[in-house]
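## tool: complex_structure
## caller: assistant
## args:
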Amino acid sequence: MLKYAFNRILLMIPTLIAVAIIVFLVLRVVPGDIVELKLTAEGGEVSMEQIEAEKKRLGLNDPLHIQFYNYMIGIPQGDLGISLWTEKPVAEEIGSRIGLSFQLAIFSTILAVLLAFPLGTLSALFRGTFLDYVIRIITIGGIAVPAFWLGMLLIMLVLSFGKLPPLGTVSFFVDPLTNFNQMIWPAISVGYRYTSVVARMLRSSILEVLSEDYIRTARAKGLYERVVIVKHGMRNALLPTVTVIGLEFAFLLGGLVVTESVFNLNGIGKLFIDSVIRNDLNLLQGLVLTVATAFVLVNLIVDLCYAALDPRIRYQS
Amino acid sequence: MLSFKNSMVGVIALTSIAFSATTAMSASCPKTGGILKYGVKAEPPTYDMHGTNSYAVNHYVAQHYSTLLTFDWKKFPKLEGDIADSWTQSSDGLTYTFKLKKGIKFHDGTPLTSADVKMSYERMKSPPEGVISVRKALFGPISTISAPDAHTVVFKLSKPDAFMMDGFASPFNVIYSVKDMKKDPKWHIKNINGTGPYKFAGHRSGEAWKAVKYEGFHHGDNCLDGTEGYRIKKLAEPLIGGQIDTELRGTAPPERVMLSKEMGDKVTYQAKTLMTLWVVSLNSKTKAFQNPKVRQALNMCIDRHAGLKTLAKITFVAPRPSGYLLYGTEYALPDEELYKIPGFTKDIASSRKEAMKMLKEAGAEGLEFTYNNRTVSHPYDHIAIWLMSEWKKCGLNPKMTSNPTSKFVKARRDGGFDASIDWAPSFLPDPTLMHFKYISADRTSSNYSQYIDRELDALFDAQGGETDIAKRKAIVHKFEKRALNNAWVLPVTYTDRVIALNSKVKGYTIAYSHILNNTWRGVYLDQ
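## result:
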């Protein structure tokens, strides 16, 4: 198992280096000018000399290979450069927001797992019944409805009952109630889709597993149905479900671009939008690298879970 | 009609005139306490007021600083002292002497002296290495600044400048402490220490800006315990949901419908024309536009009189045409003269007929050209759609390219467009401020059409040095007529600004620009 984990961690390194190179090159092709935006977007008279001086100061006039060298040298030291907009370290800009995105991802995952497991299992066990149809309608709805639109509906719902939660992130450890009030609505908005995806995956996996020979054998041995389902069925059906949970979790860390804007949450997704609008190359590089790292890490955890759930995988490796 | 008499008296006078300043502690707080929460739709790129025109910086930072002069918001543009106690101007208009109020202290306890004013203005006029000053050009006429004693500052000009007095009241021209500037010329990019009504208490990037009452504020009219600014994307829901009490950039008509419906008498509005002119810049490098008849034809196809009335119902533009100077202000062309200029006439049918004839003569029938638009809904998309339809009525074929802001500004700068939406913001209807954009491209970097017109340059210089109002007005009118007939930059119209406030917010007076009156002086919560 340790060897397996070590091999998987080693594989992360070339993946992240490739991501860093690709994102650096791709962003240099995207048109835009952050200095022009900073100094002239709202009118006023700024000379071309001042604009050029500012570009020079921010290192934007350096040759591409120098910029690339500085960028790559900084990564192993945790130095992702400075945001070209705020001039604060990129790591600080991301660090101040990732906690919120992480918390929202955890909230949504808890919600999804708590709802999806019973829904998916019931739907599979009562296949073709009224209950199955109801659950399938609910879960198809979750996949069809965009999270941001549901978010807008939720805001209107909350408004009809009274006030919206206060703006500005409140830490769970400082004021758990306010924090819960701030996070629950976006968590529901995102969690509905998450629940639906997981529930549908679980349903189809269980159905597939239940038609396997070893399930028939288990039943033929006279095992209780509960044991057949939980011990033999669920455990095997969990493999693809865990993959989906992992991928969805990683997606939530950086992919809540619109939902965070709808709920005015200062997370990674909103920062993505801002940095794209401003053409803040350094910040964008840092964000893509952070999200890529999260994906790779989550994949690693999923793979380790696979190995734990299915001994064949660790033996093969 | 806005009057500039108050600010111009000193220029006309042959002898130096002492202005009586409103120096008394005008503490006018019917109620004190509470935290005012406001929204801002953008993130500040810097904390340095000298290096920016950004409204986001202004809305967050202005409350922390003072300026030499400020405006009386109820009698705008009447000037009054902020840190200046009194001021005089020499008969030749070349020397300004300011006496400062005594006892003013920075938030860190350092006393404010004339040395702080001197060094702040020197920083704006001749910024040190690594410091950006976007007002360098405006303070070009200042030749020397001296501080003969701790509470006197003297500005000497190389030539008279009709705008200078108002420049001393610009909300961006704030006074920094010598101590901070000497510490590091770039200190103010990331730090704040002023003499304004509220002290900086923290900024969480992308989220919130906090300020607390400065007990030693020299005007004493900081009525709140503090302020909290929040970065918002939309205005209506946070205001209805009690997350914010106001937002000072303005609301669009559909938002106001929603606010009124949901909030009833819990929301109040204040309206005033915003001194930002929306224009279309035509690229002088585009071959077709090098023919003045084609440019004029484009201008003449736009039905400003009927179209703007409709447009004003759905986005925040004024419902009437304007020249480059804000309509109705002292130096603007009177309507009867403006409406004689091609493109501004009320008879749109004959205007379009004439335009199509001119296009035919120029061999530009069915001309195809690109229109560079910014992907922001209000008012960009609304203006773009309207202009597209107007030009199509003349058989033209505009193609809109909608670009995110950073790509938009790059295309605008690099000339990557045939026609581009553009804007000319100002905080005063002063010709020096407002006409700067339309002089030759080798003299201003904000002329995105990139044309050269020495006659316009000469008129611009002449008005700036003219201290006689009537004579200045005549020169300004000549400038307006020439520039409008040249049609390199087509004015759309000014912005109608309506701000929404929770009805508990009292004591605020809307100004002619969203960068004015953002210090929260005199504002209190009636709760």
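## assistant note: Chain A touches chain B through 50 residues (CB under 8 Å). The radius of gyration of chain A is 24 Å. Handing back to user.
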